[in-house]
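FORM 12-B: Structure-to-Sequence Request
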């Protein structure tokens, strides 16, 4: 608390000196945008700073040295990747007719394993008590996997930390295509981590696009992973919308039609009691800040929502991705304490799964990375804490087990599970591939155990054949088509 105020004074002094220099130009009194809630917003004056709005009050923050604020992704990143703001906030139009809307949860009609809901999303499955169930932690990593982050991820997931059953802790990767290294992704899958999809192009505004675009992005990404990282379709169960803008009913129709099991893009506002995952048989049990959540029912489709992270003082702000909270001014012990306080809201109440969602930039800042390692060391010392993949969490939720039954729970036992992904090659092919964006032809490097394709794989051409629009994805429901044979589902 004191430290925070101290820092705030430092910031205030920094503002004072800057505004003294440009006094005439702007008598800056930043006002938080109304109606869009809490979050980070670009400083109109410079891309090196941003405002964190908490309940309408702006706190000025600086990006760590060398980084710039990206007003789309809402965090500080490398200069050539940062889209400087302010970028106008467009309110999401309401496109769905009010007919056909999902009803409020009816617990009498909704039964596991196919359906799960509760009035405010806070109930524990099967009404078990918090004392008798495990606290699950879901580490999720978004975006490309490559040499900038792979070693950092391996430090967490490479076997240093174990669950109570002795198996190494695992995480879930929501992969986007550009700059990804498919040899590294293959190894993540081979070693028991979960691979899920984000999109091929990370395009903005996807939430307003149609079914074909969602299929092209999501199913195309799944195909790229199958082809270049040997991850079979049956192991890819989840998706996350870019920028956490779900695609209204359209995206969930794709989930249904193409045999995905869950989405994890919906943000839960900062609640006293965190939400458990739920199925979309009923209305979403919380407010939808993005404005683009589904409104119809999608029976049996799971939402693994992103509860907002925050501490009681709101120091650091409120964020779905941990790297969007402002903790980079802290030292590793303060990062640890912040995470512990945030975590205790789950651990000491309903033990909803604690999702720790990261972009790669968390791992570029030493204090944050060290703080995370301290947190994991601490959490893995607790007898009832398990770091599991998102699919493993859903396996527990659909068939809940008490703590004493967990050492024999096969879904969490690495000795009983084996990845269908082959062990990756020792040395991959490093492919330099032509990539056209607008008029400019650029080169993209892609590493894979497969032969190099002709072109950089892209929308409509997931195998990089060089024939645009070659792909034609056919519905594939998981229950009806258990075969691994990929070619049958794609033809031309
Ligand atoms: C794959 O992961 C294992 C264990 O985490 C590691 O020993 C091995 O070097 C990795 N292989 C590659 C190609 O990265
Ligand atoms: C993975 O590689 C193995 C061995 O090359 C192959 O038999 C299998 O079909 C591949 N799986 C996928 C999903 O590509
Ligand atoms: C593409 O080329 C056309 C004509 O040469 C030019 O007018 C246009 O500005 C270029 N667009 C981009 C994005 O470079």
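FORM 12-B RESPONSE
SEQUENCE OUT:
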């Amino acid at each position: 608390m004191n430290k925070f105020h101290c820092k705030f004074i430092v910031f205030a002094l920094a503002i004072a000196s800057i505004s003294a220099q440009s006094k005439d130009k702007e008598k800056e009194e930043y006002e938080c945008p109304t109606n869009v809630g809490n979050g980070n917003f670009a400083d109109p004056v410079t891309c090196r700073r941003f405002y964190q709005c908490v309940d309408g009050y702006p706190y000025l923050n600086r990006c760590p040295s060398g980084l710039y604020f990206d007003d789309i992704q809402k965090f500080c990143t490398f200069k050539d990747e940062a889209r400087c703001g302010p970028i106008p906030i467009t309110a999401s139009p309401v496109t769905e007719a009010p007919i056909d809307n999902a009803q409020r949860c009816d617990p009498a009609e909704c039964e596991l394993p196919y359906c799960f809901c509760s009035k405010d999303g806070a109930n524990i499955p099967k009404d078990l008590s918090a004392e008798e169930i495990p606290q699950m932690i879901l580490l999720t990593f978004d975006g490309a996997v490559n040499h900038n982050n792979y070693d950092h991820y391996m430090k967490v997931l490479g076997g240093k930390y174990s669950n109570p059953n002795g198996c190494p802790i695992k995480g879930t990767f929501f992969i986007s295509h550009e700059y990804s290294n498919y040899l590294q992704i293959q190894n993540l899958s081979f070693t028991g981590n979960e691979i899920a999809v984000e999109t091929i192009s990370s395009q903005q505004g996807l939430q307003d696009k149609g079914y074909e675009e969602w299929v092209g992005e999501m199913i195309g990404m799944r195909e790229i992973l199958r082809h270049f990282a040997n991850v079979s379709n049956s192991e890819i169960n989840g998706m996350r919308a870019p920028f956490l803008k779900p695609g209204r009913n359209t995206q969930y129709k794709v989930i249904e039609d193409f045999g995905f099991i869950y989405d994890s893009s919906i943000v839960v506002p900062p609640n006293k009691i965190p939400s458990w995952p739920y199925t979309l048989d009923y209305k979403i049990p919380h407010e939808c800040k993005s404005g683009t959540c589904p409104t119809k029912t999608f029976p049996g489709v799971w939402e693994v929502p992103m509860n907002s992270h925050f501490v009681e003082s709101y120091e650091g702000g409120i964020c779905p991705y941990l790297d969007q909270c402002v903790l980079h001014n802290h030292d590793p012990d303060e990062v640890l304490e912040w995470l512990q306080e945030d975590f205790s809201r789950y651990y000491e109440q309903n033990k909803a799964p604690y999702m720790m969602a990261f972009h790669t930039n968390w791992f570029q800042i030493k204090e944050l990375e060290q703080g995370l390692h301290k947190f994991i060391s601490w959490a893995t010392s607790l007898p009832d804490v398990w770091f599991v993949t998102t699919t493993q969490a859903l396996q527990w939720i659909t068939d809940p087990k008490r703590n004493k039954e967990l050492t024999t729970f096969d879904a969490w036992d690495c000795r009983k599970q084996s990845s269908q992904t082959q062990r990756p090659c020792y040395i991959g092919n490093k492919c330099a591939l032509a990539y056209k964006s607008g008029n400019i032809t650029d080169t993209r490097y892609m590493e894979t155990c497969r032969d190099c394709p002709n072109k950089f794989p892209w929308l409509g051409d997931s195998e990089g054949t060089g024939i645009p629009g070659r792909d034609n994805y056919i519905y594939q429901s998981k229950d009806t088509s258990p075969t691994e044979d990929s070619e049958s589902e794609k033809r031309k």
